[in-house]
């Protein structure tokens, strides 16, 4: 059964107090690359760019799921990332919509040694550039780095494998459908790159935190329901449903008063005489 949940979140990069975040010098990967996870200078800009990207995709009616580290961040995991992984539904119609949406954002091929990227062959992004590729297609756009991933690690059917459990997150009025933490953990375990291994404890901790929060909500809901039923029974407004006694009585056959036939006829001879058939009594 496909179930979509909608969360309205204060995005995790707005406040990280009390929660461990990968920061400068935290890991060999970040020391080597020089990338800092102290995101104060990037938070609002990343937030704005992600919203703009998803608005454009939604306006073009693209079927997609946000995956990768940004999916983790959108669900509260304190991960550091600079690009957004987009997993599109792979039909020709949807890929064309995706290309139309991204072409409005001036895309260029992302190349490590070329800061401004390279011009896309043919001048614009087309489905042929995406179709059949099992690796991420890196782009530079006006709203930042975007990776098109048709087959994330562990999910050969891509979008079709992820969308059933995907979580819809509200980003300042823009709905963003993201892959679950469970699916992201599976994928990162399979990738097993250095940064993925470093992200796993943070993702698992956030998953456990969400599970505890859900358990607490369930307990609170159950207590509230029990209190409401008790109050209804006490007030007498719902006795039949609240009281086992009344529920049991409801299913019993109705009681009927015995038929009143009146007192037996008095025997001849006055009060106190033995009753019976007058024909059998001895003569007086």
Question: Describe it for me?
Answer:
The protein is α+β, with helices and mostly antiparallel strands and 284 residues long. The chain has a domain at 5-196: Beta Polymerase, domain 2, CATH 3.30.460. The protein has 10 helices and 9 strands. A 6-stranded mixed beta sheet has the order 2-3-7-6-4-5. It has a 3-stranded mixed beta sheet with strand order 1-8-9. Strand 4 and strand 5 (114-118) form a beta hairpin. Helix 7 (181-191) runs antiparallel to helix 8. The longest helix has 42 residues, at 194-235. The chain is elongated, with a radius of gyration of 36 Å. It starts with a strand and ends in a 34-residue tail after the last helix. Residues 1-42 and 270-282 have low confidence and may be disordered.
């Amino acid at each position: 059964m496909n179930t979509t949940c909608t969360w309205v979140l204060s995005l995790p990069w707005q406040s990280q107090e009390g929660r461990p975040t990968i920061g400068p010098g935290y890991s060999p990967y970040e020391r080597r690359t020089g990338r800092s996870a102290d995101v104060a200078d990037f938070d609002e800009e990343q937030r704005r760019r992600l919203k703009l990207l998803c608005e454009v995709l939604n306006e073009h009616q693209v079927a997609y799921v946000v995956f990768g580290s940004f999916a983790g961040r959108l669900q509260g995991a304190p991960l550091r990332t600079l690009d957004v992984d987009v997993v599109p539904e792979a039909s020709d119609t949807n890929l064309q919509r995706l290309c139309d949406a991204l072409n409005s954002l001036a895309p260029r091929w992302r190349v490590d040694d070329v800061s401004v990227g390279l011009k896309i062959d043919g001048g614009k992004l087309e489905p042929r550039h995406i179709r059949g590729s099992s690796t991420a297609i890196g782009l530079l756009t006006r709203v930042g780095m975007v990776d098109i991933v048709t087959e994330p690690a562990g999910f050969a059917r891509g979008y079709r494998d992820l969308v059933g459990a995907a979580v819809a997150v509200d980003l300042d009025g823009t709905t963003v459908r993201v892959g679950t933490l469970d699916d992201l953990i599976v994928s990162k375990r399979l990738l097993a790159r250095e940064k993925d291994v470093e992200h796993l404890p943070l993702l698992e901790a956030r998953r456990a935190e969400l599970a505890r929060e859900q358990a607490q909500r369930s307990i609170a809901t159950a207590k509230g329901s029990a209190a409401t039923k008790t109050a209804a029974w006490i007030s007498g407004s719902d006795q039949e449903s609240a009281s086992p006694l009344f529920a049991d009585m409801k299913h019993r056959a109705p009681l009927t008063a015995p038929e009143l036939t009146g007192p037996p006829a008095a025997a001849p001879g006055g009060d106190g005489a033995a009753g019976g058939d007058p024909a059998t009594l001895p003569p007086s």
